[in-house]
Amino acid sequence: MRTSLDIPDPLFRELKVAAASHGETLRSFLLRAARKELAGPSEAPKHRVSFPLVQSREAAYDLSPVRLNEILEAEDRELAAGH
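RESULT FIELD:
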């Protein structure tokens, strides 16, 4: 079936560029895009992911800025002492 559409010039240029970048004709690009749109949304995740994804067997580490500074200062002292 043939039909006519009025497509704004800027959109038409974008469509032609997109089709060319996919190595398709404008016709095949538009047909594929229409089929994809009619197929509905892609499958969404079945459930929300909660973090952390992997539970640690060890206790959580305190990596607050204060604790990180303490660790870095201790390493600096060790290096200065020649260890």
